[in-house]
Amino acid sequence: MQSVSKSFTAAAVGIAINNGSIPSLDAKIMDYFDEYESSTPDPRRNAMTIRDVLTMTTGIQWDEFSMPYTDSTSNCVQMEESLDWIQYVIDQPMAFEPGEKYEYNSGATMLLSYLINKTTGQDLADYVKTNLFESLGITDYYWKHTPTGLTDAEGGLYLRSRDLAKFGYLYLHNGKWGNNQVLPENWVENTQAKPVDTIWPKFKYGFQWWLMPYGKNHTALLASGLGGQRMIVLPELDIVAVFTGWNIYEKPALDSWMAMNKMIDAVIDE
């Protein structure tokens, strides 16, 4: 699923907050990393909240979108080649105040993996299995781990298309699966309540979901991963659409905006 994994990680954070393991979205995330020490100390890092991490407004100096994932200068590539992904992320210097500016950062999602482990006592993969997958009847999946044994929250989930669609169904129905409230009642709303601007005018960003405004005050939710992994949720039209592929590097992947508009046009034409 590549970066579609990030949306599952955010859901786990929402569940952990609802269960009381994490106090709030505005808790300072670095309070949970006392076992780590940064080689680039900066008081701005200590001000970073869980909300900042979910919306990728951490303030950390990070670049993974201006070059292909084959480029060794990519922060994401360097993180994934390191022996301790968390240490790599924490060692990156701060460039902005947390909450000030959006910067896509797969390392930020890894901080959430560690946070779940630290606050719940469970590895993220186990926590998601118990609190999400079992409710949805998802049994056929695999989640990669880092060299230190941490769940690869930013891109390591392998999942069938039909099971990905089940996850989208939760966001279509305010976190409910049948009569079971799997996600906190307000989590889907919170995910898109305060979207941040990105470097792409058509796309905003919520809690590890891309947000695509359309029509009159409507918003589509997009989970997107390298190579053409896409899930588009259109609540007003009662649609969940899943696409998978492996168009990487020089091969163009599915254009999410085009796909969304073609679906909307098809429904309207009906």
From TrEMBL:
<dbReference type="InterPro" id="IPR012338">
    <property type="entry name" value="Beta-lactam/transpept-like"/>
</dbReference>
<protein>
    <submittedName>
        <fullName>Beta-lactamase class C and other penicillin binding proteins</fullName>
    </submittedName>
</protein>
<feature type="domain" description="Beta-lactamase-related">
    <location>
        <begin position="1"/>
        <end position="243"/>
    </location>
</feature>
<dbReference type="InterPro" id="IPR050789">
    <property type="entry name" value="Diverse_Enzym_Activities"/>
</dbReference>
<dbReference type="InterPro" id="IPR001466">
    <property type="entry name" value="Beta-lactam-related"/>
</dbReference>
<dbReference type="Pfam" id="PF00144">
    <property type="entry name" value="Beta-lactamase"/>
</dbReference>
